[in-house]
Design brief:
The chain is mostly helical. It is about 70% helix and about 5% strand.
């Protein structure tokens, strides 16, 4: 499965890209909520109550604020916790897009594998078949 994911990620297929963009936009808010409201609190609980969204490195001596929003107002900060959350969002979106593309590709393969049904005979073909059958019946009766 990981090999398929790598091939999907490195392949430049336009359909896969379009599916990825559409799915990414449609599920962006859901994934953001999943990461921010479900996964990151669990990670925080496992790591002793860490809240990654407020983790930052101060790059300016003027910054004294304890929260990221206030620190950004005071000066330059490196918001690595926020970056970590966004990377996690990306990985989840990419995985979901991969699964959707995988299902679509499977459906395409199954559809291609099904043999095409023979077209229904035209009215002319049906009449010719009836004439042939009648001629066979007549020739069989004449020989008997």
């Amino acid at each position: 499965m990981l090999k398929e994911f790598r091939e999907f990620a490195l392949r430049g297929n336009v359909v896969d890209l379009a599916v990825g963009v559409i799915i990414g936009v449609a599920f962006g808010k859901i994934v953001e909520s999943l990461v921010g409201d479900v996964l990151m609190p669990i990670v925080g609980a496992v790591t002793g109550g860490l809240d990654f969204s407020n983790y930052f490195i101060v790059l300016s001596s003027h910054v004294t604020a304890p929260t990221l929003a206030d620190a950004k107002k005071q000066g330059a900060v490196l918001a690595w916790g926020n970056f970590f959350t966004i990377v996690l969002n990306f990985l989840i979106v990419a995985w979901v897009m991969f699964l959707v593309a995988r299902v679509i590709n499977r459906l395409k393969r199954m559809q291609a594998a099904e043999p095409a049904a023979a077209p229904a005979p035209t009215r002319q073909e049906m009449l010719l078949t009836e004439i042939r059958d009648l001629l066979k019946d007549r020739s069989g009766q004449a020989k008997a």
